[in-house]
Structures are given as structure tokens and as C-alpha cells.
Write a structure and sequence with these properties.
Distance between the termini: 22 Å
Oligomer: single chain
Helix content: 25-40%
Largest sheet: 10 strands, parallel
Order of helices and strands: HHEHEHEHEHEEHEHEHEHE
Bound molecules: S-adenosylmethionine, 6-(5-methyl-2-OXO-imidazolidin-4-yl)-hexanoic acid, iron/sulfur cluster
């Protein structure tokens, strides 16, 4: 079997052509590529925990945790080490192979950062993969996370470079690319993706995918989130405005462009039918967030996910990725 080539030289025209081809052709191509690189019936599961909720100074217009919007979310203190490790141990018993800790920060401060390092060490001691999403990192922070044993760092580009200024003004697209470079330079695995359904065009979606695929290395994991419209945010009224087929097209195109990466069907599953999720798996998604909660939003309950896996003959991947 010939493996599809790993390319970093996609043109915008090529990506638009992939994304906009007839749906059946796109899904067939994506599933074909998927089978060359992965077991098509295996899905990796990660569990998320928000270790620091709310009160964030950034103005990301999708986010319930920004202090700029009245979203009804209370700001909380950072969680204690033992609480976090109990949650990780619990996630392990449900079959999650990776524990991902998120914090509502623009970037970590010195004191909190030391505590995060202890959390990373604790998760590794449980025999799980560790992931963090803490905002922007400097070189030293990236090096220390690596030293503590962090496997993955999640930092999303969120959208295309052109649409980005309509979504976030307090940090630039380039700032995000710089953090990804620091993570890569330390030899940690990059988890980076975006959000569909913020009012972006198909051209923006193609542009975002092209940016990921033309990075020096494809992100190991590419989370594709469907916007969860949050009350009080500027994007609160976007509910139900995305055609599920358009979302599935993005998953399929990501799969074709980054054949060996894990494509994660991320936020927004609570609003999707089982049939839409099944099409996402057919389009090449092979990873999900598993557990009743994302950061602040609901996720399908684990029993429902297990039932869906059973109906589709999918198994939870046991190894890391
Ligand atoms: N504060 C850190 C940061 O922004 O990098 C880490 C946490 S932040 C919540 C992680 C990512 O979650 C965002 O970049 C965004 O892609 C995604 N996200 C946040 N709120 C979302 C929402 N309402 N719907 C879909 N995705 C969302
Ligand atoms: C990612 O791409 N999606 C996750 C994770 N990385 C950190 C976060 C989704 C957040 C959804 C909205 C919320 O829970 O507040
Ligand atoms: Fe803060 Fe992250 Fe939310 Fe932006 S996405 S407001 S940086 S928590």
C-alpha cells in the first residue's frame, strides 16, 4: 500500500478545490487516506480539565472565560494539585489515555506555573499522556514543561489569518505561531486547531487548514471545534448557523492534508446528532474529548459516547499517539 505523501506546500487553490468538491468524493478520498495511516475503527480519547476558570484578560469573542463579557461564569482560584490528580486518575479508569489541563490565562505567571509543572509530573506518574493549554509560552516555560514530561501543548490558531482580527484583538495570529514554534523547538507534540461557525467563509476555512499543513511539521493533533455559542459573548447568536456538512468537510480536508495527524472532533458534539458524529469519523476524525465536560461547556456524557462507539463498532485506542 502506498502511503499518501506528507506535504507542506499546499496552494490555496488546491485546498479550496479539496474542500468544495462533491461531498461523496471528498469523504471517499478522506477515508482512503485515513485507512493508509490509521486503524479506521479506533478512536483516541482525551479528558479535559479546566484547572483555572474565568477572569481571563483576553477578548476572544467565542469564550465564556473572558472577563470582558458578562457570561455569568464565576472566576475561580486555580485548582489544588491533589484535586487535579484525583480527576486524572478518574479519567484513566474510564479509558482516557491523555489528560489535558486548561487554564484561562493569556500566559502563565511564575507562581502558578510552578504548580502546573507539579501537575504535569503527577499526571505522568499515573502513566497517562499529559497535555496543557495555558496560553502563550516563552522559551523558558516551553523548556520547563518539556523537562517536567509534558507530551502535548495545545494552542489553537482558531481561524484564518484574515478573519482572526474579527475574533481576537488582544494577541496576534503571529503570537500564536510563535508559541507553536517554541513548543516544536522543545520537541513537544503540537496540538493546534480551530473553530468552525464563527461567521468565517469557506475561503477562511481553507486558509486556516493551509496554515496548519504548511507548518514545518504538521501538528500531531488537530482539534476541529464547532463553536459552542456562549451567552454574553459577541458570538452568542451563532447557534445553529453552521451546516453540519460544512463542518464534516473541514474534518475530511484536514485528514487529507495532514494524513498522519490525529484529527480531533472537539467542542460542539453535544449539539451534534450521532449521525453527524459518525460522518465525522468516516471523514477521518480519530480522536475526541471524552468526559461530561469540556472546559466550561457540556460534552456528551461518557455512557452515551460508549454506546455510540458500540453502535459504530469503534474501539477506544489504548496506546498513546
Ligand atoms: N487560555 C488558553 C488559550 O486561549 O490558549 C487556553 C484555553 S482556550 C479556552 C483553548 C481553546 O478552546 C481556544 O483557543 C478555542 O479554540 C477553544 N474554545 C474556547 N471556547 C470555545 C467555544 N465557545 N467554542 C468552541 N471552541 C472554544
Ligand atoms: C480545543 O481545541 N478544544 C478544547 C481544548 N482544545 C482545550 C476546548 C473547547 C472549549 C469549549 C468551550 C468551553 O468548554 O468553554
Ligand atoms: Fe482567555 Fe483562552 Fe478564553 Fe481567550 S480562549 S479568553 S485566552 S481563556
Amino acid at each position: 500500500m502506498t502511503l499518501s505523501t506528507i506535504r507542506h506546500d499546499w496552494t490555496h487553490q488546491e485546498v479550496e478545490a479539496l474542500l468544495n468538491q462533491p461531498f461523496n468524493d471528498l469523504i471517499f478520498a478522506a477515508q482512503t487516506v485515513h485507512r493508509q495511516h490509521f486503524d479506521p475503527n479506533s478512536v483516541q480519547t482525551s479528558t479535559l480539565l479546566n484547572i483555572k476558570t474565568g477572569g481571563c484578560a483576553e477578548d476572544c469573542s467565542y469564550c465564556s472565560q473572558s472577563s470582558r463579557y458578562d457570561t455569568g461564569l464565576d472566576k475561580e482560584q486555580m485548582m489544588q494539585l491533589d484535586e487535579v490528580l484525583n480527576k486524572a486518575a478518574q479519567a484513566k479508569t474510564t479509558g482516557a489515555t491523555r489528560f489535558c489541563m486548561g487554564a484561562a490565562w493569556r500566559n502563565p505567571n511564575a507562581k502558578d506555573f510552578e504548580m502546573v509543572l507539579n501537575m504535569v509530573r503527577g499526571v505522568k506518574d499515573l502513566g497517562m499522556e499529559a497535555c496543557c493549554t495555558l496560553g502563550m509560552l516563552n522559551d523558558e516555560q516551553a523548556a520547563r514543561l518539556k523537562e517536567a514530561g509534558l507530551d502535548y501543548y495545545n494552542h489553537n490558531l482558531d481561524t484564518s489569518e484574515s478573519f482572526y482580527p474579527q475574533v481576537i484583538t488582544t494577541r496576534s495570529f503571529q503570537d500564536r505561531l510563535d508559541t507553536l514554534e517554541r513548543v516544536r523547538n522543545q520537541g513537544m507534540k503540537v496540538c493546534s486547531g480551530g473553530i468552525i461557525g464563527m461567521g468565517e467563509s469557506n475561503t477562511d476555512r481553507a486558509q486556516m487548514l493551509r496554515t496548519f499543513a504548511n507548518l514545518p511539521e504538521h501538528p500531531h493533533s488537530v482539534p476541529i471545534n464547532l463553536l459552542v455559542p456562549m451567552e454574553g459573548t459577541p458570538l452568542a447568536d451563532m447557534r445553529g448557523k453552521t451546516d453540519p456538512f460544512d463542518f464534516i468537510r473541514v474534518i475530511a480536508t484536514a485528514r487529507i492534508m495532514m494524513p498522519a495527524s490525529y484529527v480531533r472532533l472537539s467542542a460542539g458534539r453535544s449539539e451534534m446528532t450521532d449521525e453527524t458524529q459518525a460522518l465525522c469519523f468516516l471523514a477521518g476524525a480519530n480522536s475526541i474529548f471524552y468526559g461530561d465536560k469540556l472546559l466550561t461547556a457540556d460534552n456528551p456524557d461518557s455512557q452515551h459516547d460508549l454506546m455510540l462507539f458500540k453502535r459504530l463498532g469503534l474501539t477506544q485506542a489504548t496506546g498513546g499517539c
